[in-house]
Specification:
Layout: H1 2-17, H2 22-31, H3 45-48, H4 51-54, H5 57-62, H6 66-69, H7 74-79, H8 87-105, H9 108-132, E1 136-137, H10 139-146, H11 150-159, E2 163-166, H12 169-175, E3 185-188
Antiparallel strand pairs: 1-3, 2-3
């Protein structure tokens, strides 16, 4: 995964080197990112990656949650999951159902292509993760679930415009994160979104 990200960034940088201005280099880089369609002018993180830019509206409407609606406890809901070993999915499912209950009461080319597809899939998935975690994603737990390194996961979040940082006390309180997680870094998306800038070499 690190290899394909490096390949993409190298391609972006090589293409950007021939451009005359920083703005043109940025436009070229943005158009070649393996991420969901984004709104660079959004002023709220929730608008950077609109839901239906991640999952087409027709597919979203086709999703059925009736089986989950008929369950009565976390154990039954967990049994319906296709990947029951995912701590991140288990935690998000619990948070969603708790919130719902509360509201009721209240080859080289082939290899590169495959890797690019995987990268694109992961960035779409992580864009959804950001929405579920109030735009401060737990990349360490995702890394464990996906059997990938935290560095690889963070690199993908950075490609989405996230910054990897520790949350302030105020941010942790807002997100309901325990104080013992103070030293854990998260992938935080802010708006307007800012992507890693391509490194331009000076012409000689």
């Amino acid at each position: 995964m690190a290899g394909v990200m490096g390949h993409v960034m190298d391609s972006i940088q090589k293409g950007a080197q021939g451009l005359m201005t920083t703005d043109e280099a940025k436009e070229f880089a943005d158009s070649n990112r393996l991420i969901p369609s984004f709104d660079a002018t959004a002023t709220d993180p929730s608008d950077v990656y609109p839901l239906h830019n991640i999952i087409p509206e027709a597919e979203w409407k086709a999703l059925s949650v009736s089986a989950f609606d008929s369950t009565t406890n976390d154990k039954e809901r967990h049994a319906l999951l296709p990947h029951r070993s995912s701590e991140w999915v288990r935690r998000q499912l619990k948070a969603i159902t708790t919130s719902k209950d509360s509201s009721k009461t209240k080859k080289k080319n082939l290899h590169q292509s495959t890797s690019a597809t995987k990268t694109n899939l992961l960035t779409h998935m992580f864009a959804l993760c950001l929405r579920l975690e109030n735009f401060a994603a737990d990349s360490e737990t995702l890394a464990k679930d996906l059997s990938m390194s935290t560095t690889e996961i963070n690199q993908l979040f950075k490609s989405l415009g996230c910054k990897i940082s520790k949350l302030t006390d105020r941010e942790r309180t807002r997100l309901g994160i325990a104080g013992n997680a103070a030293e854990t870094k998260r992938a935080v998306l802010t708006a307007p979104v800012e992507f890693p800038k391509p490194r331009l070499k000076r012409k000689t």
